[in-house]
C-alpha cells in the first residue's frame, strides 16, 4: 500500500470517527488553550469573563465532571466562546449575569483548592453499566455548616438541557453562604420521568450518606426553576419512593420558580413560588392559581410575581425579582422552626 493510499485512509477514518462522536465527546476531545494546573500562588487558576468555555470544561479543578458545567450535549460551544457569551447555550433562560457566572466557578475552584470534594455520583457503577444514560448524572455539593439542613436545586431547560450554571449553581452557592448545605443536581434530559427518577436517587443518596456529607436530613428542601420546579413539585407531592427512590420523608419545603405545573395533592409540602409577570412560558396567573389551591387546603404557601421580568431569571440580579431568594430562605426557615 503506497503512501498516498495510507494518507487517504487515515483522513477517512478520522472523519468517520469524529462524525460518530456525541456532542459531549466532541467538546471533550476539542483542543483548548493549556491551563496550568497551578498558578504562582500554588492554587488552581481562576477564570474571568474572557476565559473560553472549553478551557473551563477542561480546567484541572473540574476533572471528571467539567462536561456538566454547561449544557454541551444540547448546544456545542465554539472554540472562541467565552464566559461572557454563554447565553446562546441557555435559550430558555434570561438575565444571565457574567459576574455571577465567573463568581460561582471561582468559588468552586476555591473549594477544590481547599481539598473539598464537590461532585458525587448518585448511581453505582453497576447501575450505570445496566443503564449507560445514568452516566450523565451527579450532585455538585456546596458545603455549609456541619449538620445543617440540606437543599437540592434542579435547574430548568425544558428537559432538553440542564442550565445549572445559571439556575442551580448560583442558588446553591448562596445557600451555602447562609450556612445551609446545598446540592445542584445534574439529571438526565428527555422528560420528567427520568429527571424525577434522578432527583429521587439524589435524595436517597444524601440520606444514605448524611454522616459522611455532614448534613442534617431534617426539613430538607427541594428547589427548582421551570422544568426543575416541576421535578421539585412532583417529589414534594409524591415522595422519592414513587420515583424508584428509597422510602423517605417528603421535603419540608418546596421552592419553585416560574413553571406552569398544575398537579398537586392534599398533602403537598409548604410551597414558595415566584414568577415574572412577563413570562411567556409560565403564566404567572397559572402559578398563582395552584398556590391558592394549596392554600385552600391549609398548606402554608407564599407567592410573588415580579413586573417587567420574563422566564428563566435565575437570581434575578438587576431586575425587580432581585433578592427573591431572601424571601425563599426565610420561608424555608419558617418551616424548620415549625417542624
Describe the protein in words:
With 339 residues, this protein is α/β, with parallel strands linked by helices. The protein is 37% helix and 14% strand. It has 12 helices and 8 strands. It has an 8-stranded mixed beta sheet, with helices on both faces. The protein starts with a helix and ends with a helix. Residues 1-21 and 36-40 have low confidence and may be disordered.
Q: What features would you highlight for this structure?
A:
339 residues; alpha/beta; 8-stranded mixed β-sheet; 12 helices; 8 strands; 37% helix; disordered N terminus
Oligomeric composition of the shown chains: single chain
- The residue-averaged pLDDT reads 91
- What is the radius of gyration computed over CA atoms, rounded to a whole number of angstroms? 21 Å
Low-confidence stretches: 1-21, 36-40
Sheet with the most strands: spatial strand order: 1-2-4-3-5-6-7-8
Helical content stands at: 25-40%
Q: Looking at the structure, what is the overall shape?
A: globular
* Backbone structural class: alpha/beta
Share of β-strand residues? 5-15%
Secondary-structure element series:
HHHHEHEEHHEHHEHEEHEH
Total strands: 8
Question: What is the tally of helical segments?
Answer: 12
